[in-house]
Predict the structure.
Amino acid sequence: MSGTLPGGGGYTRSVAVEKFTYNANGTIPTIRGPVTIAATNAPNRFDLSVVTPGNVTATLKLPTPGPGDPTALLNGKPVTGAVSNGWFMLDRLPSGRHTVRLTSAR
């Protein structure tokens, strides 16, 4: 198969969206292995522990813990991310074990 179609431009990439499922203990099964999460939501602070399998990058969408832009730490080091409508986005999180802490200015 050559990958070309009459009037087409060759191969393209498609995305399939499957039903999202998770277990009661916070694991999300994937074809690469489980993703595990644990979160704590306290006044003016949100903490997340996440473990992703090898050869995976993740995008995290976390609730901001208060008004304004939060201070964000990834594995104890300052990190920046996009904030929109009360959500903090962290892109391209590499595989492995990570902790994220968001705090608000109060």
